[in-house]
Amino acid sequence: MTEARGEIVWTPPPDVRATSRIGRFLDWLAVERDLHFEDYHDLWRWSVDDLDGFWRACAEWSGVRWHDAPSAALGRRAMPGAEWFSGATLNYAEQALAAAADRPDELAIVARSQTREPAEITWAQLADGVARCRTGLRRLGVRRGDRVAALLPNIPETIVAFLAAASLGAIWSSCAPEFGTRSVVDRFAQIEPTVLLAI
User: Model's pTM, two decimal places?
Assistant: First the structure.
């Protein structure tokens, strides 16, 4: 039996190390950790041989903003049941909005709709909208662990409300209006939301 090989559809360009994010990660490892890898295979080998070192480096290089640092990248290796970054806490909204500080005038959202005018929202505008929505949710009594339900379509305001809820540590659940009344009521009745946002 002969093995047939398909046509190669893509080959990395010669400058891939200088122009890719993985190349920048390798450069960062060399400077910050004094770790040097000849090629992708060497990096892969390290990533599976030193899980803690690799994933801690990935988190640091990616700019993860821990509130409480993890005790280990992989606390429990059993599958199922692996425990990643045990003891760590962070806020998803803080991570998602980090770009607002570095590049406030760049676009964060480009929205198109059949029923609304096109919208382009910068990181600064997104962060401002999230802050205002967060203030409104707090006035309504939303705290960490509360549920915020949203009957909203996929529009920029939904993203703002989601990030505002996440910034408070609230649990978010949403349904698009086309789900139908019965499905929406069944879903939201189970979680007993503190607040319901609707269009």
Answer: 0.80
Which tokens go with 144? 């960490």
Strand partners, 175: 151
The single residue listed with the structure tokens 């640092």 is 69
Distance of alpha carbon 112 from the chain centroid: 22
Residue 135 to residues 2, 27, 28, 126, 140: CA-CA distances in angstroms?
Answer: 67, 42, 39, 14, 9
- Which string of DSSP letters, residue by residue, matches 138-154? HHTT--TT-EEEEE--S
pLDDT in tens, 148-198: 999 999 999 999 999 999 999 999 999 999 988 999 999 999 999 999 999
**Cβ count within 10 A of residue 191:** 12
- Give per-residue pLDDT as tens, 55-95: 999 999 999 999 999 999 988 888 898 899 999 999 999 99
Would you report the helix, strand and coil content of the chain in percent, each value rounded to 5?
45, 15, 40
Q: Give the E-state strand segments of 77-187 in sequence order.
A: 83-86, 107-111, 119-122, 147-151, 171-175
Tokens for 40, please give them: 């992708």
Indicate the angle between helix axes 21-32 and 40-49, nearest 10 degrees. 60
